[in-house]
Design brief:
- With 283 residues, the protein is of the alpha/beta class.
- The chain has one domain: Vaccinia Virus protein VP39 (Rossmann fold, 3-Layer(aba) Sandwich), CATH 3.40.50.
- Helices cover 41% and strands 16% of the residues.
- The two termini are 31 Å apart.
Length: 283
């Protein structure tokens, strides 16, 4: 979704049917915020970024620059979410992927960087209506069951998506697992169920077109690994060689850890619609 296509969402969803009375802005908080991919998607759609939490000092400076009105937190282990209870509609987080990444040892829950329990604690303290999580495909076999069951125990219903970056126009595959958790009425559940089926079909179509345009005929394991004719397609073509005294080190690290904002925007779009429809019933 290009930035130029955002106005219709703001216009359609921000006002009641009479076109006059503005609904309150939806609110968003991000955990493991990185360089602010989720926060940018929230800004695109017209939400208010209330807080972000990021332990990397350079990334926090960038977040402060780009989202100066949001409250900043550093270490999630020291974040008291109770102060935000009842004020946040959506919490997002790309919790650390190193425990599940193929590039690492894949120690999963045994890795000291496994911080899902901290994210769950904050979710339970804040009680948002929606939670959006993102991680590498390796989480499926190492921790996804625990993540989903713990969210269900907290009163959320779960939807899981495998959405590649190429499905939103990027020139690489970058398979990622997206977790959508929500609490609320049956109407929310039905709306998301309808969107789920349609959107998965659309993402699969875009991925297939991406592969066909590059004469890639192998699907499945090899495409997930990104190995075709000796060329890697699974991740962005970023040369990871840099001058340690320059900002390139931080920029490359930030990009490498970042989510694909356009995917987050597509998910946020349906959340925006659902929550605004719910709010209209109370006006």
């Amino acid at each position: 979704m290009s930035r130029s296509g955002l106005d219709k969402f703001n216009a359609n969803n921000f006002f009641l049917s009479d076109g006059q009375t503005a609904l309150p802005k939806l609110t968003h908080g991000s955990l493991f915020s990185g360089i602010g991919g989720f926060d940018l998607a929230a800004e695109w759609i017209g939400w208010e970024n209330i807080f972000h939490c990021e332990i990397d000092e350079w990334a926090r400076k960038l977040l402060k620059q780009n989202f100066p009105n949001a409250t900043q937190h550093a270490d999630i282990r020291q974040l008291d979410g109770t102060k935000y209870r009842g004020t946040i509609d959506v919490i997002s987080g790309g919790f650390p992927c190193q425990p599940f990444s193929r590039a690492g040892r894949q120690q999963g829950k045994e890795d000291n960087r496994y911080l899902w329990p901290e994210m769950l604690r904050v979710i339970n303290e804040v009680k948002p209506k929606f939670v959006v999580g993102e991680n590498v495909a390796g989480i499926v076999n190492l921790a996804l069951d625990e993540v989903c069951s713990s969210l269900e125990d907290s009163g959320y219903q779960i939807e899981i998506f495998n959405i590649p970056a190429c499905a939103v126009g990027a020139d690489h595959i970058r398979e990622r697992i997206w977790i959508l958790a929500y609490s609320g009425s049956d109407s929310i559940s039905q709306c998301l169920l309808n969107w789920n089926g349609q959107q998965i079909e659309e993402w699969d179509k875009r991925k297939k077109e991406w592969c066909e345009n590059r004469n890639i005929t192998q699907m499945g394991t090899e495409i997930d690994r990104g190995v075709f004719i000796g060329r890697p397609f699974s991740e962005p073509k970023i040369v990871r060689i840099y001058n340690e005294e320059s900002t390139e080190l931080y920029e490359i690290k930030g990009l490498g850890n970042a989510i694909v904002t356009q995917v987050a925007f597509e998910i946020f779009t349906v959340i925006d619609f659902v929550l605004r429809e719910e709010r209209k019933k109370n006006y």
